[in-house]
Amino acid sequence: MKNFELKGSIVAIVTPFTENGDIDVDAFDQLIDWHLTNGTDGLVVCGTTGETPALTGDEDAFLIERAVKRVGRKIPVIAGTGSNSTQECIRYSLKAEAIGVDAVLVVGPYYNKPTEKGMYMHFATVAEAIDVPIILYNVPSRTGSKISVANTIKLANAFDNIVAIKEASGDLALFTELVAQRPDGFKVYSGDDFLSASANLLGADGCISVIANVIPKEFAQLMAASLTGDVKEVNAIFYKFRELMDLMFIESNPIPVKTTLAEMGRVKEVFRSPMCAMEKSTKALLLDELKKLSII
């Protein structure tokens, strides 16, 4: 299964809501169509950017199934199925597998802060219970613990269906360690837009991206250029959108990206608590950059 060939721009898609707080199905469909026509290489549904912690299990399943049907195998669909409970993670993953996703994205257990042994056992137990490809997700700023390079490589070597990692620690040195030590076919994706092109030039395979929600065509071009070593093109695109990449995290993700999409008329500016509308001061900075780039 290490022939999982997905590379490039993989959008962690937002979850749009109606004004009364329900899932905005029409807006979700239109976002997917927009990505399909603008070169996005893969789609992650029910990830951090999708406000998944505030969704119900039924809503998760609905969004995953909707995405699979809407995409129609044109690009891979990856479902976020992580949990701080191993058994719950297995249950979510089996449901996504039955729906027909191409892979699952499994975050390191949050809040529990497992030991190295516990972290390995969590992913090993999940890998033994499901058949669908698994992408590990290391984001210690959110989880309070980390998936070490040693554990990643050990898991990748032990389980054929552990095919990739989304590395979102913000540490470029970790990318080099993962790329240097990974088994053949194991993919390394950036979870940080800002570092993604640099990581690709060092041997990584793409990015599970926030900013691809806003500039799908341009981010796909950035990923393609960095994967082929076209430094001139990388610099032209990266430096154009460098400031916007930073502003996507001026408040907790997905607040800035969803605010941007609302300003673009693609979603409503509605969040699930505890996410909330941006502060006026930070929103003003974001809007100023969006106007400079003629995005709004």
TrEMBL record:
Gene3D superfamilies: Aldolase class I. It is an enzyme of class 4 (lyase). InterPro entries: Aldolase_TIM (IPR013785), DapA (IPR005263), DapA-like (IPR002220), Schiff_base-form_aldolases_AS (IPR020625). It catalyses: L-aspartate 4-semialdehyde + pyruvate = (2S,4S)-4-hydroxy-2,3,4,5-tetrahydrodipicolinate + H2O + H(+). It is found in: Cytoplasm. One of its GO terms (molecular function) is 4-hydroxy-tetrahydrodipicolinate synthase activity. The record marks T48, Y111 as: Part of a proton relay during catalysis. SUPFAM superfamilies: Aldolase. Keywords: Amino-acid biosynthesis, Cytoplasm, Diaminopimelate biosynthesis, Lyase, Lysine biosynthesis, Schiff base. Its main location: cytoplasm. The keyword Amino-acid biosynthesis applies. The active site is at Y137, K166. Its EC number is 4.3.3.7. PROSITE patterns: DHDPS_2. Pathway: Amino-acid biosynthesis; L-lysine biosynthesis via DAP pathway; (S)-tetrahydrodipicolinate from L-aspartate: step 3/4. Catalyzes the condensation of (S)-aspartate-beta-semialdehyde [(S)-ASA] and pyruvate to 4-hydroxy-tetrahydrodipicolinate (HTPA). Belongs to the DapA family. Homotetramer; dimer of dimers. This is 4-hydroxy-tetrahydrodipicolinate synthase. It comes from Carboxylicivirga marina.
